[in-house]
């Protein structure tokens, strides 16, 4: 045991010393020489130094958790391995392996060395900002969000939903149902959740032969859907990540020895996906695996080329603001716009950022058939520059930290499948760094909403409820509730004593008497319309908490007094 701890301590010390020396070397070189100009293919020492620095920073949480024996799937570890590690891997493929870039504008330019090094430095700072934000909130604090009820899975409902959802998915793949219909797409994605739920049941109950056969059969059918029937690499990864989370948090769990294997499997999935796609296009198996003239580099290139983080950020830094102006938050507003249905707003702008990337940065042109998004750090830079990247990744770190804190509290209380799936969905969309910010949060919000509908169908409350022994709901115990109560009271006081309130009071006033079960409380309600009057009365009654019966009684009383008031009759007649 002592040797095991000493080995981990030595590894951690070696990591810290190496990172410190590489960081000092990078800073010293830049102070002495500045950021050079020229081509990214220039043979210059600072390129491998910065690639090594970013790599060391990204794997820092993995080394730290390994040293302390903590959760190997903590989101800060996953974000380091699947989000930020994309940047040095992409830079390594472009420069050290000399693969070049995938963007035409990047390949055809010979003056991108400065922006390229700038992007690596910026990501180094962004990685640190993300980790600082995450560590500040993930390990301690009160309940931030309401806790979930404990839910019990209904196996017949689960199997029926899986059958319906997988059928819809298959019909959409062959063109019978439109894949552009968002409702169809979201319902079709329910079948991702079912294998994870079945695996959860397998770990939580007494295992028998029938359960094992059913679980293996459903998982096998899902794999066939994602590979043989219609290959979708992204769908297969989502499916695999949900199974991995269930295996880790509800089953035996994975160790750090498994992390290396998972990483190698992820790397291998890119050339394997290329082989499967060739099979789908009609290549014989031998040619799909060994293309004429193929080399080892041709199998590595799909992996490094797919991770376009450094390349995209380099082009944005190179062209902003000289050729393309800063957006000052305009693209971030697309997150709000995305939740407005097109039925209401027919001219709603598209939230897909890859078209903008083609138009302004990648060089492919606005009418290109293929495109790649500018990534989250790239979009942050396009809006607010380098400071925007640092602040944005710091806020993202806080968000992921709060998510993990909520998840740990849920797992300590209920250990149910519901928090695992909801946590997995949120984590999956955050890890999809190549999408835009609006795409990420819009897709995440809609997926979470439909996941809640899914669980409303396939689960039932186990009877514990959301009330604690003292009668206070978990909603009222949450920090968000306390914060909204504070904001509401401050806004309410401002409205009550503002000049506009006094003006409305002279023009129009009426009195509403709200009868409670114990007391008669008199409220003076003054506003310029009956709608505002109604909502203000509702806030007054419900400001002390979400008590359903009390609010319902208050609404009945408010409705009665509004309908019988002299003002109502004057405005709307009897």
From TrEMBL:
Signal peptide: none annotated. The chain crosses the membrane at residues 12-32, 44-64, 76-100, 112-132, 153-177, 210-227, 233-250, 384-404, 411-431, 437-459. Keywords: Membrane, Transmembrane, Transmembrane helix. This is Oligosaccharide repeat unit polymerase. It comes from Halopenitus persicus.
